[in-house]
Here is the input.
Amino acid sequence: MAAPTSIPATNPPSSSEFKPLLETQNLELFYGASRALKGITMGIRENLVTAFIGPSGCGKSTFLRCFNRMNDLIDGVRIVGECRVGGEDIYARDVDVIELRKRVGMVFQRSNPFPKSIFENIAYGLRLHGIRATSEIEGIVEQSLKGAAIWDEVKDRLHQSALGLSGGQQQRLCIARAIAIRPQVLLMDEPASALDPIATGKVEDLIVELKKDFTIVIVTHNMQQATRISDYTAFFYLGELVEYDLTTRIFTNPAKKKTEDYVTGRFG
Amino acid sequence: MSASPRPEASRSLSRTGIDWGSSLGTAVSLAATVFILLILFVILGNVVIHGLPQLSWRFVSTIPKKDFFDKDSAAVLPMIVGTSIRVLVMTVFVIPIGVTTAVYLTEYARSNSWYTRVIRAAISNLAGVPSIVFGLFGAGFFVHLIGGGIDDIIGATSPKWGKPALLWASLTLAVMTLPVVIVATEESLRAITPGLREASLALGATKLQTILRIVLPNALPGILTGGILAVSRAAGEVAPILFTGAAYYLADLPRSLNDQFMDLGYHTYILASQAPNIEKARPILYGTVFVLLLLTFSLNAVAIFARARIRRQMRSGH
Here is the structure.
């Protein structure tokens, strides 16, 4: 892995060291009158895994959902500042949210397969984006399920209900569903928090595998998970980005006292 | 620490005496349940015992003569046809309108805004309006205003639509049963986990695509429940159709939606109140009521069967 030897705590988008795929500039988010994100500036690199950590309510999930505009669904949310994906301001007036979400996929905390067959779960997104030919859909379904390391477990039951799968299998199916439409970015909101250790291990292996093809941003409460799978880690506290650095540095030699207290389990 | 045993520990766990309060509660609630079952049993039993012998192929398959109080010429074919059609036409109108309203209220409207509250208040008030008032509303609004308006536009010399008709009776019933369908659909829409909507939207579906492809298919059993309740309520109603379409006697079956029709419920009322000889009319009355119950149950059975089938299919993933 060719990680830079040093990066500033919060990467300015103009940083000469790399061109970030996702970047925000002074991003603020309000729920009604309360300020949930307090001016976050950061850049996220392509084809790496970036972890967001921090205590509950620190704004990390809210921040994650800014990148595919899922916060738009909540009444009374207002966003100020800049948020760019591949250089484009995604909150600009003429942005097609549908196209954005095709480019920035998401996996949720609780696995949420549709009450349809395994095959139809994957085919759903493909049909939304105009892929109609059965042979093409069949090919992508197989490829996506293989990509999510679940093909061998489900290849004989593609037309059975997805609800019959175990929790871990359901979550990998949701990952397969997300990657089927070939997004650039995968946002993962605590994807393994509801899974047992073995299923968690499989999902973690998968994430490491997937970063070859996708840029992954993952919110996690699990410190070990962040150290195992992420290249960069951002620590959030009370709506602010406290520290953002290489994962190894965040966990071994953090610059801020608050980060050290959190990663060593002194609070949170 | 004290060495002496705690006083409660020396008490026996076995009960002394009878708990009269809870015994009484059990007895009263059991009695109430038995009472309700008894009433149902008496009504159904009575109708079946006296009604079943009246049933014959001729009774259900012929159009009665003008003197339908006479045992030999009494028959209910036009009433079966009339009641069935008005219930089906009502369903065709009430389901789409009710479902669309429920979708608006749960998926689009802001839940706490004043106009959502006004709509909800209107729906619950609509549910509380007596059915005879719906009948009068239907006569004024559908028959005279809408029907009369159509006649004016097409320049009919004699009333073609501005008279009581199957369509107006069905629409009146649809308005009456609208709250039932809206409430049942709303409940089933709310029962769908937000995660499913999020998953669809995150894949790049529009809100409309999400509603049509994910939300509504999953709400189908609840929508059918609303339909079942609406059909149950509407099948036996007489008051809303009195001025909007039901006829005392017709020599022919209805041929189009602007024809009047004979109706099982209304016919029951006529048999019970207008017969010159009540003793002679009684067996016919029993037969008619039996057919009405049978029709209501079978309409329900079809919907319940369809719902069970859909639930099974949803579980197996198709």
Remarks:
- The domain at 49-316 of chain B is CATH 1.10.3720.10 (MetI-like fold).
- The mean pLDDT of chain B is 91.
- Chain B touches chain A through 22 residues (CB under 8 Å).
- The CA atoms of residues 43 and 156 of chain B lie 48 Å apart.
